[in-house]
Design goal:
The protein has about 190 residues and is mainly α. It has nine helices and no strands. It comes from Aetokthonos hydrillicola Thurmond2011.
């Protein structure tokens, strides 16, 4: 697994800070932990892959480097008379908040098996943040989950469409690619 795959698996951009890597790993580990998904072998595999990616990134990104980049020594010094004025949140902070609120809602919809609503939600977010790799990954996973549900409902042509959409949305995600290939094998066995 190369570094790009590690960042992608954790839903991060290359060069992410140590704190972001740690936070993303913890969030995803809670989601895919075998104790939470005892009968889901794919969740277990995902958890193992996440842990391997996290360990590899920890070898490359040290917390000291990140702290030095953003330490107070690089910030402009203020004299005691100056009082900092509170800055309004910039657009990227607002979008980041929107992104994570949407992610939480997406998780709820997927757990409730409201797949068309989940897909609409993540597609709208992808239109708003078209360059965001995490959003693309979420969108691809939503397509894949819906494709699997369609297989279970014996709607095979429609399932094939959504599985192809998953691959097209996040083509560099090797883990997703392998999972979708398994889904296609199931379809081939049925046809």
């Amino acid at each position: 697994m190369d570094l790009g795959d590690c960042y992608r698996l954790l839903g991060l951009r290359s060069g992410a800070a140590f704190a972001d890597i740690k936070a993303s790993y913890r969030r995803l580990a809670r989601q895919y932990h075998p104790d939470i998904n005892p009968d889901d072998s794919q969740a277990k595999e995902k958890f193992i892959a996440l842990t391997e990616a996290y360990k590899l990134l920890l070898q490359v990104v040290s917390p000291e480097e990140t702290d030095q980049k953003f330490s107070d020594s690089t910030a402009p010094r203020q004299t005691p008379q100056e009082t900092p004025t509170p800055k309004p949140p910039n657009l990227s902070e607002i979008e980041e908040g929107l992104k994570w609120k949407t992610y939480e809602q997406l998780q709820v919809f997927l757990k409730q098996r409201r797949f068309p609503v989940a897909i609409s939600l993540v597609e709208a977010l992808a239109q708003r943040l078209p360059e965001d790799a995490e959003v693309r990954q979420w969108q691809a996973i939503a397509y894949q989950i819906w494709g699997r549900e369609l297989i279970a409902q014996n709607q095979f042509p429609k399932a094939k469409i959504y599985l192809k959409k998953a691959l097209k949305t996040d083509p560099n995600n090797k883990t997703l690619w392998l999972e979708v290939q398994r889904d296609f094998q199931i379809l081939e066995e049925i046809f």
